[in-house]
């Protein structure tokens, strides 16, 4: 998305870009999506609004990129053993362990205020604004969900997942309860809960012979 | 919540109350929770704003009651065979069939624009406003979830559900995916999806011997 630029201006551009991302996330967390404006982001980032207009076509585009940047940074900080999905879901051959690792990491991310507050603001707006919601889902959510599909298909090939289960539906049994509890704050979102979801989903609720 | 009133004013009160409910739901669907005001509801319902202030302590209280009223009416229209949870979840002895009935009815409700639009507006606001969210959950959501706990405990007693499964977590495997798909509009919310959730959740995803 960055325009071609001379090498000596590239570091300054990266700094401005990061400042704009941070300003956009802070603002959307404070005043909500609707009241966040390009002008407000520019003022907070200490750049001219023309800088933003030159790089992004819309407020939504700034925010999408800011979220991708933030998620990438969170994953880097958490390190390669964290269940970071940026490199795909690990495949150690133990489906239960791999899914618990990833769901626990997701719990940690959702409980991190730096991610939580802007994510809530954007999700809430997507719930009432179908167009923004669709963009949010296709750019931010579906790439994550695709990683589950890949891991679940591998499990099917290894005989660890029922051959007749649709991975695209199966992943919703893992992600849906987590997001539901987080969004509606019904009960605390913990590692124990992540583990229970994986155990219940894989093992099923009816008694096994 | 209704004050003591003379019998001859009671029918008029009921009409006003219903008009206020309808106005509140319509308004919150159109302009969102924050921009809905007591004055706006009064104007739309054709009553004085003092009437609303006399009956309800807050905008949130009007809306909570309006949702309960709307859900009650929807359940009445759908009839007793609809999987209406107002009378509890049916217990025919067939857990799979009973859960499919209820989840299909929930799909129908969520796809009904009269319920969908105001429910989205209130849910979105609860996601960013923790206090409103908590009120929404305790008054509207938890009473519904309690019906699942009751049905799932009965299934445990009948030996149809694993004895070591926590019904409060188990129900989230049913409700979470449904709400996730509806809120984020990832894929169509259909009866087939409701059935798949029940089958996957009860049977589990790992191969059975």
Kindly, what is the distance between the CA atoms of the first and last residues of chain A, rounded to a whole number of angstroms?
Answer: 56 Å
Number of domains of chain A: 1
Helix content of chain A: over 70%
CATH C-level name of chain A? Mainly Alpha
Fourth-tier CATH superfamily name of chain A: Tetracycline Repressor, domain 2
Radius of gyration based on Cα positions of chain A: 19 Å
Based on CA inertia axes, which overall geometry of chain A fits? elongated
Number of helices of chain A: 9
Instruction: Estimate the strand proportion of chain A.
Output: under 5%
The tally of strands of chain A reads 0
What integer is the average pLDDT of chain A? 89
Any idea of the CATH topology of chain A? Tetracycline Repressor, domain 2
H-E string of chain A: HHHHHHHHH
Protein chains sharing the most extensive interface: A-B, 55 and 55 residues
Query: What is the CATH architecture annotation of chain A?
Result: Orthogonal Bundle
Report the oligomer.
homodimer
């Amino acid at each position: 998305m960055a325009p071609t630029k001379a090498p000596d201006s590239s570091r300054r551009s990266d700094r401005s870009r990061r400042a704009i991302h941070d300003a956009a996330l802070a603002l959307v967390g404070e005043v909500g999506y609707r009241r966040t404006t390009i002008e407000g982001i520019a003022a907070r980032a200490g750049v001219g609004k023309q800088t933003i207009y030159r790089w992004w076509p819309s407020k939504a585009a700034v925010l999408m990129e800011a979220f991708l940047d933030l998620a990438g940074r969170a994953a880097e900080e958490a390190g390669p053993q964290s269940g970071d999905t940026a490199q795909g879901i690990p495949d150690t051959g133990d489906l239960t362990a791999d899914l618990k690792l990833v769901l626990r990491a997701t719990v940690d991310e959702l409980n991190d205020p730096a991610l939580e507050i802007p994510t809530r603001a954007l999700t809430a707006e997507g719930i009432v604004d179908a167009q923004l919601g669709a963009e949010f889902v296709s750019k931010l959510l579906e790439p994550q969900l695709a990683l589950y599909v890949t891991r679940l298909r591998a499990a099917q090939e290894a005989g660890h997942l029922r051959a007749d289960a649709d991975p695209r539906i199966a992943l919703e049994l893992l992600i849906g309860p987590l997001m539901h509890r987080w969004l509606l704050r019904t009960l605390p979102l913990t590692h124990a809960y992540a583990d229970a979801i994986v155990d219940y989903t894989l093992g099923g609720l009816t008694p096994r012979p």
